[in-house]
């Protein structure tokens, strides 16, 4: 997936799930943030008209800014840190439901 800032979320071995009734799709797997320049030219065949337009816009932005390093800060992180253990919360919820049944 190409983001507006010119970086790409790359899934090396993605798994997909779909719920057509809910019009919902999920891509799971290990995602890596990469610069679009690292992915070229391999992704050119995968880009549609919208992606090519976005790539042209990015190229113009990079040319005007004098380099990609000025556009995207290296310390920026889009993925939030996991702060809770969801497995424990799920187990507690199941135990609570079982207690209510008894």
UniProtKB/TrEMBL annotation:
Pfam families given in the database record: NAC
Q: Write down the InterPro entries for this protein, in alphabetical order.
A: BTF3 (IPR039370), NAC_A/B_dom_sf (IPR038187), Nas_poly-pep-assoc_cplx_dom (IPR002715)
Q: Where is the NAC-A/B domain?
A: 1-40
Q: What's the family?
A: Belongs to the NAC-beta family.
Q: What is this protein called?
A: Transcription factor BTF3
Source organism (scientific name): Callosobruchus maculatus
């Amino acid at each position: 997936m190409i983001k507006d800032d010119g970086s790409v979320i790359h899934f090396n071995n993605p798994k997909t799930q779909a719920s057509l009734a809910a019009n919902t799709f999920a891509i799971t797997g290990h995602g890596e943030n990469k610069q679009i320049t690292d992915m070229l030219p391999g992704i050119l065949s995968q880009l549609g008209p919208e992606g090519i337009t976005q790539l042209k816009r990015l190229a113009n932005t990079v040319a005007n800014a004098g380099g990609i390093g000025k556009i995207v800060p290296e310390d920026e992180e889009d993925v939030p840190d996991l702060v809770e253990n969801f497995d424990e919360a799920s187990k507690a919820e199941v135990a609570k439901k079982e207690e209510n049944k008894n």
